[in-house]
Amino acid sequence: MDALIGKAIPQLEASLRFREARQAVLAANVANIDTPGYRSADLKFADALGAAAVRLARSHPTHLAGASPEGAGYRLEIGPHGTRPDGNGVDADRAMIALSRNAGAFGDQAEVLARLIAMARMAVTGEPR
Question: The pTM is what?
Fold first, then answer.
């Protein structure tokens, strides 16, 4: 059981951190819908999940700090200039859909993490809560 939970919890933690950072970037897109010249942005996971399971130890003071999305193994992608007269590149519908999907994925992953912790607790104590 430790082999399953021991690997799954760090991967879920990394995934939840990514979802949190991505939500901030997507929310900034929505907040700047009317800003002239603003280009939409998004975070890509860039295989950080696979690396998280292998390298969770902090080997340098700036590792796993979370201060910069790119420092956490995510790649920030800036979209093209918009076709609107003010040059804004945010599509409101796409931005809201991306926010909703990201929030849903965060909720799903948090539920899986909670169930894994409950399973581990039940394995240790023998009681279901």
Answer: 0.72
